[in-house]
Amino acid sequence: MRRKLAAGNWKMNGLSGSLGEAVALAATHPAPGVDILLCPPTTLLDRMADAVHGSKVAVGGQDCHPAVSGAHTGDISAEMLADAGAGYVILGHSERRADHGESDALIRAKTEAALAAGLVAVVCVGETEAQRDAGETLAVVGAQLAGSLPDDGVTGDSVVVAYEPVWAIGTGRVPTLEQIAEVHDSLRAALSARYGAAANAIRLLYGGSVKPGNAAEIFAISNVDGALVGGASLTAADFSAIIAALEAAPAA
Ligand code: PGA
Questions:
Q1: What is the tens place of the pLDDT at every residue in 2-16?
Q2: Which atom of ligand 1 lies nearest, measured to the CA of 229?
Q3: Residue pair 145/163 in contact by the 8 Å Cβ criterion
Q4: Rounded distance between C-alpha atoms, residue 185 and residue 213, angstroms
Q5: Which residue of 17, 222, 224, 231 shows the fewest CB atoms closer than 10 Å?
Q6: Does ligand 1 have an atom closer than 6 angstroms to the CB of 229?
């Protein structure tokens, strides 16, 4: 059985004063029935890790460099994230694929670096609206999945896959439940074909405009094991409501 995961992606949001939201979230969920993750900007990572230390809230990074160390000005390695208190790292988010031209091969190298550092990699895939309109969704996300994951070391303990349609991120638009189910079933089948029975333990998150008001119906879809939440993860109140909906969802 897969333990569900509610993951928050703060993106480039949050200053010192925002740490109180993480503390409030931890206090609201002292014994959650699901895993809870917050990925703040790197500037807040070690302070957030300290602030929620001993609680059930894990913290993670939003990106890492594939190398362990070296002459890469402005970049952060997976080992540095782990050293700062991270347990997870988001990789291949569509905003990084678009803003920084990240390829599947680069994301795969980053995923290998994350696993080597003992981090859980949350690897993101998702189609643009034009790709969906052209009927290419399953081919696009299938190719991203194949290219972004390494051959070795991929288990339910090391990798989480997040399906995030680009056109649903930050827009308030969400695919139909049937569309989400179709993609998640296809991702599950692809993981099983490549990694065998071990793939059954890999959690599949949906992301893109998940809010307190739509979380329950999304979490009722089989093969949806949680969510990657942007805007609604910035406040403890909204994220708590999504966590509660996930706790109430049927078991995987
Ligand atoms: P959103 O972002 O919840 O604000 O749509 C999701 C994401 O990009 O991870």
A1: 999 999 999 999 999
A2: 3
A3: no
A4: 24
A5: 17
A6: yes
* Ligand 1 contact via 94 beta carbon (within 6 Å): no
Give the residue among 114, 85, 118, 122 at the shortest CA–CA distance from 5: 122
Burial class of residue 199, CB neighbours in 10 A (0-12, 13-18, 19+) = buried
Q: Would you give the distance in Å from CA 154 to the centre of its chain? A: 15
Q: Within its chain, how far is the Cα of 103 from the centroid? A: 18
Structure token pair of residue 47: 């302070």
In terms of phi and psi (left: phi > 0; alpha: psi -120 to 50; beta: otherwise), the region of 5 is: beta
Residue with tokens 């080597």: 116
CA of 12 relative to ligand 1 center, distance in Å: 12
Quote the DSSP letter at residue 11. -
Q: What is the pLDDT of residues 186-231, one digit of tens each?
A: 999 999 999 999 899 999 999 999 999 999 999 999 999 999 999 9
Tokens of 1: 């059985």
Phi, psi of 37, rounded to the nearest 5 degrees: -135, 135
Q: How far apart are CA 164 and CA 145, in angstroms?
A: 12
